[in-house]
Amino acid sequence: MVVERDDGDGSPAYTRDGSFKLDAVGRIVTASGLPLVIERSDPGAEHFSPQGPGEFTVGRNGAIAWQPAGGDPVQVGYIRLAVPVSTAAGRDPDMVSLGGNLYLPAEGSSVEMLPAGAASAGQIRQGYLERSNVSLADEMVEMIIAQRAYQLSARAVQAADTMLALANGIRRG
Description:
The protein is of the alpha+beta class. It has one helix spanning 136-172; strands at 2-4, 12-15, 20-22, 28-30, 39-40, 54-58, 63-68, 74-78, 80-86, 95-99, 102-105, 109-115. It has 2 domains: 2-115, no CATH class; 131-173. The chain has 1 helix and 12 strands. A 4-stranded antiparallel beta sheet has the order 1-2-11-10, with no helix packed on it. Strands 5-8-7-6 form a 4-stranded antiparallel beta sheet, with no helix packed on it. The model has no long low-confidence stretch (mean pLDDT 81).
């Protein structure tokens, strides 16, 4: 997804941060407060200011809608997904980390903006946060295995210490 950096000129950067909220002026921003760049349904509007109670929804295709309490939904715009592509033949696309979950295309790479759900773009799911492709069950199993290995090593050290203490006691006695 594209955000405006706070480097003074609002230049774009790319993020995987999917935790959004509204700021004081009605812009959709990341958890760190950077405005999300969206394709607006009303190109003349700088931002959408919701009136009264309601909620935003984001569809799997990236469509952002405002649902006022007791009213009809209002289409606000679309979130487009940034997909890195290589501009050099035979080279995988790279992104350079700026820190704070922000990225720029590396030299020899560029970014293609695709609608959510397109072939290589991925999907948007409201109410979910990405877990960086980590399988929680696999990681828990690995942690338990590591814990058991540490426990076994600690017992081996204790046994060696006990044997050395016995050997030391025999020598003195």
